[in-house]
Design brief:
The N and C termini lie far apart (32 Å). A four-stranded antiparallel β-sheet has the order 3-4-5-6, with no helix packed on it. It has a three-stranded antiparallel β-sheet with strand order 7-8-9, with no helix packed on it. 17% of the residues lie in helices and 38% in strands. The chain has 120 residues and is α+β, with helices and mostly antiparallel strands.
Length: 120
């Protein structure tokens, strides 16, 4: 289950976590309770992924990356449905609105961007 996955990630060293995030965004969904096989891998970011969130209805995933983009993924197919561009720095965090219609993202490094953006 997801909790077992988080326990494994928590045990990794900081370097291990960065290597894990850099390789690809992989999600093992709760349905895999019978085994520890990953159900879907989402590939498309060109750099480390820093934030991942499920939509309120569970049909989509949004991810934010060091590559300055936000990607919207279809959970069933693993396909990237849309790439949002506009941040001038890495994307720290993404979140869906409660109704799932919008994605909020924040980015910034010490001197660049430091903005929250809302996407439709």
């Amino acid at each position: 289950m997801i909790s077992r996955w988080f326990d494994r990630v928590r045990k990794l060293t900081l370097v291990g976590v960065f290597i894990f995030l850099f390789a690809a965004v992989s999600f093992c969904l709760p349905q895999e309770a019978e085994n520890d096989e990953c159900l879907r891998t989402f590939k498309g970011h060109k750099d480390m992924v820093l934030s991942v969130v499920f939509s309120p209805d569970g049909r989509y995933i949004a991810s934010g990356s060091v590559d300055k983009t936000i990607k919207l993924w279809d959970v069933k197919t693993g396909k990237c449905l849309r790439t949002f561009r506009g941040h001038k720095s890495l994307v720290h965090s993404v979140a869906f609105s409660p109704d799932g219609k919008y994605i909020a993202s924040c980015s910034g490094s010490w001197l660049v961007d430091k903005k929250i953006k809302l996407w439709d």
